[in-house]
Design goal:
Number of strands: 13
Shape: globular
Number of helices: 16
CATH class of the largest domain: Alpha Beta
Helix content: 40-55%
CATH superfamily of the largest domain: Glycogen Phosphorylase B
CATH architecture of the largest domain: 3-Layer(aba) Sandwich
Structural class: alpha/beta
Number of domains: 2
């Protein structure tokens, strides 16, 4: 980096999953003081859920756009981010804006930078289902972001291949691994204790997450009915479900799951607690995206309550079983996994397809080289 001009990197994100995956990269860039100035801009698409992650990683944001409001719509978030992020970009004039994944914050943030001709780096680029309805609106968001992106940081070779197929510049596509593995390296601890885990210590623990917009309504009713039935038919099972803040999800969970003595509905966990809960459960039932990667890192089998996935590497590796949202399919898959020890071993014994825990270091190295090369080319 001798003789190179210091670069300003702005990180923009707004949800808890984005924060978990961006914070290790922020810390890596902050360590390289001779290379980078860093600016952290939150949109506040999530509020208190986001604060817990930042507190854990000891990162203080420079800006918080505070776009969140009750019953906010996707239109509300998009308009607010575009309106409020613009002046910050004008003031800071970063050399690059980094966004993550597939949220509405990522889409609107990338669009705001594009309008101001600021280069964009996309962390976790190239994930695809090619179905705009599933996941919704995430598939639309990530495809749009990749259309605007100058530097694609793809977590896997499969994701990079999608970008090549879409005619993105191969010289701007980098396979880095997924930064969530960097986060888990620091968060899972020996000797971790929690009252909810003490409650479940005499049981086979199933950890549940469910929140997807496309699953609201009948699909979520089927999912929750399956979870209750699994618990009733397997007396060794206890279930812990940290419920998403979405009021529609909470109403459905209350209707189907609230009054069972072996099911605990708890408030969302911070990143440190959640990773340790994952490492100590037996099975994960989820409709999440990023949790598929986290589960691979702690070698826990995932029953994915979705009909599509942008992370087929986990399915191909045998760690993830995509069971859909119908009650009977979920029930049968969970019952089999609870009874079949050989199947369980196969789902937990393979290599992690999502990286090795050094993605943040790779991305920071690439940014140093690429941003200086861009300077030299423009000189």
């Amino acid at each position: 980096m001798t003789g190179a001009t210091k670069k300003k990197i702005m990180f923009t994100f707004g949800t808890r999953p984005e924060a978990v995956k961006m914070c290790p990269l922020i810390l890596e860039c902050q360590k390289r003081r001779e290379s980078f100035d860093t600016v952290v801009c939150l949109t506040g698409q999530h509020a208190e859920m986001l604060t817990h992650v930042l507190d854990y990683f000891r990162i203080k944001p420079d800006y918080n756009l505070e776009v969140m409001k009750e019953e906010q719509t996707l239109t509300d978030v998009t308009v607010e981010v575009l309106t409020k992020l613009g002046p910050v970009l004008e003031k800071e004039k970063p050399d690059i804006l980094l966004v993550h994944g597939d949220t509405t914050t990522s889409f609107a943030g990338a669009l705001a930078a594009f309008y101001r001709q600021i280069p964009i780096g996309h962390v976790e680029a190239g994930l695809r289902t090619y179905d705009f309805a599933s996941p919704y609106p995430e598939e639309f968001n990530r495809q749009c972001v990749d259309m605007l992106t100058d530097y694609h940081f793809a977590p896997t070779q499969w994701a990079a291949g999608n970008l090549v197929d879409e005619k993105r510049d191969p010289s701007r596509i980098y396979v880095t691994g997924n930064t969530v593995l960097d986060a888990i390296k620091t968060s899972v601890r020996e000797g971790y204790r929690h009252p909810e885990l003490d409650w479940a210590s005499d049981s086979t623990l199933i950890l549940v997450t469910a929140h997807r917009r496309e699953n609201l309504g009948e699909p979520m009713a089927q999912m929750f009915s399956a979870i209750r039935r699994i618990t009733e038919d397997h007396p060794e099972v206890k279930v812990i479900y940290p419920i998403h803040k979405n009021p529609k999800v909470r109403r459905a969970a209350d209707q189907y799951l609230r009054d069972h003595e072996r099911i605990r509905l708890i408030e969302p966990l911070d990143v440190f607690d959640f990773h340790n809960f994952m490492s100590r459960c037996h099975i994960i039932l989820t409709d999440s995206g990023g949790l598929q990667e986290e589960a691979c890192a702690v070698k826990k089998p995932v029953l994915l309550m979705r009909n599509t996935t942008e992370r087929p590497e986990g399915v191909e590796a045998g760690v993830i079983d995509m069971v859909g949202t119908e009650e009977e399919a979920i029930y049968r898959a969970a019952s089999r996994l609870l009874k079949d020890g050989e199947l369980y071993r196969k789902m937990t014994g393979g290599p992690n397809p999502f990286g090795d825990g050094f993605a943040s270091r790779r991305i920071a190295d690439i940014l140093e080289d690429a941003l200086n090369a861009a300077d030299n080319n423009s000189a």
